[in-house]
Amino acid sequence: MKIKELFSGETDNTFIQFFRYLFVGGFAFVVDYGTLMLLVEVFGFNAKLAAVVAFILGLIVNYILSTLWIFKNSKIGNRLAEFAAFAVIGVIGLGINELIIWLFDDVIAPRKPLDFIPEDKYYLIGKLVSTAVVFIWNFAARKFIIFNKNSTSEEEPK
C-alpha cells in the first residue's frame, strides 16, 4: 500500500476508510467538542443541552466530509434518504453520547472520585469517553449499513 492511497482516490478498503475516518472524525470531534465548551464555558448553557447542539454540528460536518472523502458507494440511491440514515445512526450515537455524559456529570461527579478534577468539569471527561465509543459505533454502522462496496458497480479504472 502506498502512502498516497491513504489520502487520495476512491477506495473500498476498510483499513483505508477507517484511517481516513480518523481524520474526518477528528475534525468533527473538534467542531463538536469546541462547540460544547464554547456553549457551556462562555455562554453558560446546560452541558447536556449544549452536547446535543454540538453533536448535531459535528454530525453535519462528519456527513459532508465522509461522503466527499471516505464513502463513495451508498446502498441508498437518494442523498436525502442517505443523510436520514446517516443521521439515524448519528442519533443512536447521540443517545450513547448523552448517556455517557449524564453518567459522568450526574452520577460520577457528585461522588468526586478524582479530587483533582472540579465537579463541574466531569462532563468533559465523559465527552472524551463517549467520543471513543461513538466513533467506533458510527464508523462500523455507517460502513456496513449505508456504505458498502457491493452497493454499486465496480469503479472504472482511472
Q: Say what oligomer this is.
A: single chain
The structural domain count equals 1
Mean pLDDT: 87
List the secondary-structure elements in sequence, H or E. HHHHH
Spans where pLDDT lies below 50 across 5 or more residues: 151-158
Please count the beta strands (DSSP E, at least 2 residues each).
0
Radius of gyration: 18 Å
Shape descriptor: elongated
- Give the terminus-to-terminus CA distance: 18 Å
Main sheet attributes: strand count, strand direction, barrel closure: none
Helical element count? 5
Helix content: over 70%
Helices and strands: which structural class?
A: mainly alpha
**Beta content:** under 5%
General description of the model:
It is a single chain. The protein is 72% helix and 0% strand. It is an all-alpha fold. It has one domain (11-146). Helix 2 packs antiparallel against helix 3 (47-70), helix 2 (14-42) runs antiparallel to helix 5 (122-146) and helix 3 (47-70) packs antiparallel against helix 4 (79-108). The longest helix is centred in the middle third of the chain and has 30 residues, at 79-108. The protein is elongated. It starts with a helix and ends in a 12-residue tail after the last helix. Residues 151-158 have low confidence and may be disordered.
